[in-house]
Amino acid sequence: MQDILDLDRFPLHRPHSPQWQALVDRCRADLAAQGMFNLEGLMHPHVAAAEVSRMAPRFASDAFLHERMHNIYFKTLDDLPPDHPALTRFHTSNRTLCADQIAGSALLRLYEWPEFATFLAATMGKPQLHVMDDPLARVNVMSYGPGQALNWHFDRSEFTTTLLLQAPDAGGEFEYRTDLRSEDNPNHDGVARLLRGEDPESRTIRLTPGTLNVFKGKNTAHRVTPVRGDKERVIAVFSYYEHPGVRFSESERLGFYGRAS
Ligand SMILES: O=C(O)CCC(=O)C(=O)O
Ligand SMILES: [Fe+2]
Q: Domain Fe2OG dioxygenase, which positions (predicted)?
């Protein structure tokens, strides 16, 4: 893993060593304080750049164009009138490559490296995390060209794990509002305020290539702002579960990727 990761700064290869534990403790503290942690340059930037070059032909020819209008929940809510401002609809557009289209990549090697899951589980306070069985969903890579964006949403999973491969020249920032809602409080008025651009606790970060970003996506509202300029924003999303063998159904794969296999 030394060839693709900066293990000197981030000793993921030595689980439970004092240095590893110190890193886990720092990540846990960041998650508790800000709902997020970053390992800047975990993947060597030259490896991230090589991954992007290798994927470019696939993005140009057979990536899935994910384009839709949606609200922050990706659905209507029974307890809200359809014109409630929390249900404001926005446009999302990007291109997605699935795990079966990046065979042999450094990203998949990292995904399947057991020490990576061990580290992530420790930061999230879980006994263990498992790779998915799903041939498409395991790792996805999203590319955002000029004007493309991932609009406001909450994630289905408690945590989301990404690694930025290429940063755009402008735009394509990650904007998030930690703990906007909770298990007991959907905070629809707070959601409406955020969507109006009036939430003072909304934060924006610009990720740098090679950076691992883990955030609590279920109750943290977040979006990727529209990319400006010709250089695409390219980011990988890793999917781990607390149980082994998770697969999406055919209809889920069709909905997410436009194909089942
Ligand atoms: O691209 C990003 O930085 C965030 C990705 C994200 O929110 C998601 O995949 O659900
Ligand atoms: Fe998300």
A: 135-242
